[in-house]
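Q: My labmate handed me this sequence with no annotations at all. I'd like to see what the chain might look like in three dimensions before we decide whether it's worth expressing. Could you predict it?
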Amino acid sequence: MSPLDVVVAGLGNSYRGDDAVGPLVVELLAGANCGVRDVGPLEEPLDLLGRFDGADLAIVIDAVRSGAPIGTVRVLDVDVANSDDDGRAEPAVTSTHGIGLVGVLRLARAVGRSPRRLVVVTVEGEAFELGSAMSAAVRAAVPEALLAVTALIESEQLCA
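A: Here is what I predict for the chain of 160 residues:
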């Protein structure tokens, strides 16, 4: 059996407080990537195009604001074939910097380049202002997020 094609990407901006959690997790993962094809930080979801194309598994780590307690880690398996953000249209955007993960997945699917499986590991954040520091609760959640990513990779039998 050949190894699976796995891509891991940390979305975020290291200069925007809690938004740095995705890049930090992939930085910590990079030393032991266990056959992962691409481990890297990305500032924009659109940067996933060309990186996760056709992968067996794409794992994206990102800070979010959902109303959950700060530092909450969630693992969300996205339905690649039918993901439509619960039927809601994404807001109109005037530049590629405004396209979200669902929009990127729709675009990848439209051109036949989406990953087979997409899992998003989110960390609830609170401080996203330029120049702000990562909040203590988000920094404390980094090991849990890293463990979630590692468990996903191990579940695909890439690491022992």
